[in-house]
Each structure stands twice: as C-alpha cells, then as structure tokens.
Amino acid sequence: MPGKGDIGLVALDQRGHSDGFGETGQRGDFAASTVSSLIQGSATISAQPNKAMHTKNSSLLSVLLAVAAGVLLPSSATFAAKQAEGKNTASKAANAKKAVTSKKAVPNKKAAPSKKAALAANALTPLAAQVALADNAPALPAKAWLLMDYDSGQVLASANADEALPPASLTKMMTSYIVEQALRTGKLKPTDLVTVSENAWCRGTSAESCMYLPLNSQATVIDLLRGIIVQSGNDASKAIAEHMAGSEAGFAKLMNAEAQRLGMTQTNFVNPTGLPDPAHKASAKDLAILARAIIRDGSEYYPIYAEREFKYNGIKQGNRNALLYTDPSVDGLKTGHTSEAGYCLVTSAKRNEMRLISVILNTHSAQARADQTRELLGWGYSQFEKVTPIQPNAVVANAKVSFGKTDAVAAVLGAQWTLTMPRGQSVQTQFELKPGLEAPIAKGAVIGKVVATANVKPVGETLLVAQAEVERSGWLLLAWQKVTHLFGK
Q1: Other C-beta atoms lying within 10 Å of the C-beta of residue 228
Q2: What confidence tens digit (pLDDT) does each residue in 73-117 have?
Q3: Each residue of 179-228: pLDDT tens digit?
Q4: 2.60.40.10, 2.60.410.10, 3.40.720.10, 3.40.50.300: which CATH number matches 397-486?
Q5: Catalytic residue at 334?
Q6: Does 76 participate in catalysis according to the annotation?
Q7: Catalytic: 232?
Q8: Spatial contact of 140 and 126, defined as CB atoms under 8 Å apart
Q9: CATH code for the domain defined by 120-383
Q10: Catalytic residue among 158, 169, 209, 283
Q11: Where are the domains of the chain?
Q12: What are phi and psi of 196, to 5 degrees?
C-alpha cells in the first residue's frame, strides 16, 4: 500500500533543487565555510617559522609562571582584602539571583510544532464535490479538483472545475503538447539542435526548475522534451519556445491557439513555463482536456511522462510526480508549484482498461497533492466500471434502402463502444437511423446512431455504420423501383 513517505522517494538534483519555483534545498554553505576557516587558520599557525614560534613560546611561559605565582602565593594584605571583597560580592550576587529566580513565574514550555502539524495548519477547508455521478465523492482541501473519464471525456466528479487559477508548471503540458505535435507532423525532428540563449539560460540557480543547459550550448529536441516533462525545466521550455516561435510571447500565441482548438475556454497562457503572471490562468477542467489530448494525440511520446528520472549535463533529476513511485497504474502527467499557485498535480492512471484523469489545483503541500490524487483515483475506481452496451459485431438494426440491389442493410457499431458508469447501474439503448437512405451506400458509411440512457438520462452515444456495401440497381430495376416508390408501393 502507498505510504505517506512519497515525497522522500523523489530524487533531488545535485544542486539541492526541489519542486517548482523558489523552493531550494538548504546546502549548509555556512557550516562548510566555518570549517574551512578553521582548517585554514590551523594551517597558518603551523606555517610560522620555528624561531618565531620558539620566541613566542618562551614569552608565554614567563607570563604563565608569573600568574601562577600570584595565584599560589597571595601574601599581601591588599590582595587578601580584595579576595574577601570578591567573595562577599559573589555571595551577594548569588543571593540576589536566587531571590529573583524564586519570584519569576516558570514559563510553560511548548514543544515546537512538527512539520506535519504546520502543513496541516496551512491546509484549505475540504471542498465538497459540486458535480458527482456516484455517491460518497471525497471532499478535498484544494481550491479546485476534478476527475475525468478518459474515453468519453465525461467529468465524474469536480469542485470549482471552471475557475481560472494559476497553473504553475502544469503550463508545460501545453508546451510539450505543441512540441509533440510538431514532431508528429515533421515540423521538428528529434535530432534537431536548439541553441540556449541568455534569456533561456538558468544561470546555475536552484531557485527555479531547470534542466541546467549551459549558456550558448545546443541540445536536441528530444532531450529538451524530456527536460520539460521529467525535470520541469524552465530553460528547456524557453529554449524550445524561442526555437519554434522566435520568443516566449510568440510561443504563447501558439499555446492559446491550441487551447482554443481543444475547447479550453477558461485558459490564457502568457509564457511557456508557468512563471507567475496575473493574466496566466487555466481551469481544472481545461487542464484535464489538455491531458486527454496529450494521451490521445501523442501516443509515441506519452511514455516519457512515466519516466522517473532523466540525466543531462551530468545532473540526474527525478520526476516530481510521487505517484509514479508508489502506484504502478499511474503513468503521467505533470506537477507544478509556485507560492501563488500552491501545489498542483495532473495525473492519469489505467486499471482494468479504464483510464481516469485527475486534477488537483492549489493544495498546501507536495504530500497533500499526492494523497488527494490517490484518494480521488481510489474513489473513481471503486465507484465506476466499464460497461459495453452493445457488442462490436452485433447487428443493431436493418436500415431500409431505396434504389439498391438489396432493399436493406445491417447497421452495426462503427467502433468498439464502452461507457464508464456507476457500478451496478443498468443502461438502456435506443437507435436512430437516417431517413430516406438511397443506394449506393459504401461499407462503413454512417447511417445512424445509438444512444445510451440510464435513469432516463443520456449517458453516451455512438455512430451506426453500414455493415456491407449496397450497389445501385440496374436501369430496368431502377425504373421499376422509382415507379413503385412514386405510387407508395
């Protein structure tokens, strides 16, 4: 069973970097410099000439003997008086301290709050589902969350799903999607070289997510894609944006055009990284739509989202999606974090041929986003199941055809049809055929549709196609058919 130590499983890079922007590991530089100073001081003393050291040692010995003599032989009356005065003063000071201590109230010492308690204190109030297609949907302490069925795109449960919020590095899902589509269409090749400009360069900082591309170096497109997906590299995102569109602003236009095409109605991108900008927003539903497109349209590159680590320029970094290390059904997608956006996570999992997509936006810790995702996926898989309303090769109906060598054609499903339904819920189907079908009709031509309902509500539909070709009649038969058709026989 997944434990609560998920965050410890995520490998950190050699610079002490952690997830998102502005989070860095403590490197102990002060302690190191202090030790170094001590060692250096020791070396300096050791390096002094022997003669000088001998002179200093002789002087010190004389002083020590004089002091010792004074302490061991207190013969003068003045010295004795001073010693007595010192004792009296010390005694009075001790008594005064005792009195003050006895009057002082003893403070209640409280233990410092643990890290876990501090995180819990920052947690948001659990947000109940506003949409839920099954009972007992979880209430999650995040600003927005959603669970979607991949096959149908149907939202199974959600809260604040349409609220536009800062997406942080979830932005890079669109950056990687555009790169993947360019690779698919041939606009980019995996081996194309991309130059790292000064604007893209991370300058060796650990204050943001970086692939650590050297300034003015060149990297292949496929390495940059891995750097964006696995390492969440801002430098990789900027470099590919400049390569494809000339600038980050130019690439943002491409991102917004793709968002509009996909139906992401509550999204506006300003940059390819997700670095904070008041106008840079996306909703939980839009991010789920984007995740679905990545899985559907980029099957060749989607396995990269499941890779646990990537090494570049001698620096190995782990994927920050903690569920990749604890849940074998999880195979993507992306984490994000800024102080403004909180901790975010878009995840996809596949169990028993059912794929779900979850979105968590703005929760209080990296552990919380992993735990909430696990809870949401657990609820989804326990409450829903895959249903096949009609078997793939079953004849749904016989459609009447005019002016053909045969007067009917079998209507079958155009593709395998499954629905994600609450467990135990029955499904009814009803077909609709196109009126006035006339030959010729090609095999596979759309001739109708079938609609599934549950509790009298539509839950899905799919197309019906002709099982076989229907040729048009010869001229003599056709003439007769037209005459009979005219008189309604």
Answers
A1: 28
A2: 333 333 333 344 444 444 444 444 444 344 444 444 445 555 555
A3: 999 999 999 999 999 999 999 999 866 778 999 999 999 999 999 999 99
A4: 2.60.410.10
A5: no
A6: no
A7: yes
A8: yes
A9: 3.40.710.10
A10: 169
A11: 120-383, 397-486
A12: -95, 110
